[in-house]
Amino acid sequence: MSDLADLFPGFASQWIDAPAGSIFVRSAGSGPPLLLLHGFGETHVAFAKLAPRLAERFFVVAMDLRGYGWSSAPASEKGEAYTKRAQGEDVIVVMEQLGHVRFSLVGHDRGARVGFRLALDHPGRLEKLALLDIAPLEESLGDAGLLRVGRARLLSQPAPKPEQLIGLDPKGFLADALASGTKSGTLDAFDPRALAHYRAAFDEPSRIHAFCEDFRAGAGVDRELDLADRASGEKIVVPTLALWGAASFSGHGEALLAQWREWAEDLRGVEIDSGHYLAEEAPEATFAALDLFL
């Protein structure tokens, strides 16, 4: 931890006891509470370019999901400990420990799926929900979406095959995963100090297993819950913002919005000139869209 750059100057750091074990958070600011949840391959550091500005208006909490970053990686088989429902329980405990029963949530990628499930399971907890660069039910639209779905299928395969494959070159796998999702196809958009955080959190067997368990849950229990809710007509009732990268869903923005309209009663959407990593590739445009919505 001490060898990595502090990208959240002025933010408090703490571990909070939750169902998963210890959940690491950074927090700062005053005003309405706002939780930031990162995606695959990343940590809370993914929001380093946005969090200080958001903290001018909000009490901002940037959290490492279970299994990621500095949060605990609970033992699990077949995704049982990494369902988005279980991760949503971590969120509730963390925010309650920080003094907030209701809050807004901005989630990217895996973090967006946690927010999506939380909105369906506990709508009374959320004020507003922003979902960054995902489509419902892991469906793919556009070339970058296909790449992500292909990677999800790999990671969700039964243990230990994916773990063994990643273990051959963890940092190389991470670099390829991150670069392939950007508009440029390179790592240029990432702060090198942030990349150091991601590499440090990725190169460890229990964490690699946790990432795979996250995707196994996504392909199993999470999908079953989503399909059941869709069949029963469950809706997200809180105001919802869908942001997506133009390069991620190239030419399919309206189709993506149509999918989300099936789920969200109060939806708005904004396309960002970016790849998958909106908060890092296009922080100004992403901040502007979030600031207006929140």
Question: Biggest sheet: strands, sense, closure?
Answer: 8 strands, mixed
Secondary-structure arrangement, i.e. CATH architecture: 3-Layer(aba) Sandwich
Total helix count? 12
Overall pLDDT metric: 95
The stretches of 5 or more residues where confidence is low (pLDDT under 50) are none
Roughly how much helix do the residues carry, as a percent range?
A: 40-55%
Strand-and-helix sequence, N→C? EEEHEHEHEHHHHHHEHEHH
Annotated CATH homologous superfamily: Alpha/Beta hydrolase fold, catalytic domain
Q: Which structural category do the helix and sheet elements fall into?
A: alpha/beta
**Strand fraction:** 15-25%
Q: Which descriptor suits the 3D outline?
A: globular
Terminus-to-terminus distance: 32 Å
What's the arrangement of strands in the largest beta sheet?
Answer: 1-2-4-3-5-6-7-8
Number of strands: 8
Determine Rg (CA atoms, Å). Answer: 17 Å
Structural overview:
It holds the Pfam family Abhydrolase_1. The chain has 294 residues and is of the alpha/beta class. It has a single domain, classed as Rossmann fold (3-Layer(aba) Sandwich), CATH 3.40.50.1820. It is 42% helix and 17% strand. It contains 12 helices and 8 strands. Strands 1-2-4-3-5-6-7-8 form an 8-stranded mixed β-sheet, with helices on both faces. Strand 7, helix 10 and strand 8 form a beta-alpha-beta unit. Helix 2 packs across helix 3, helix 5 crosses helix 8 and helix 8 packs parallel to helix 9. The protein is globular and about 45 Å long. The two termini are 32 Å apart.
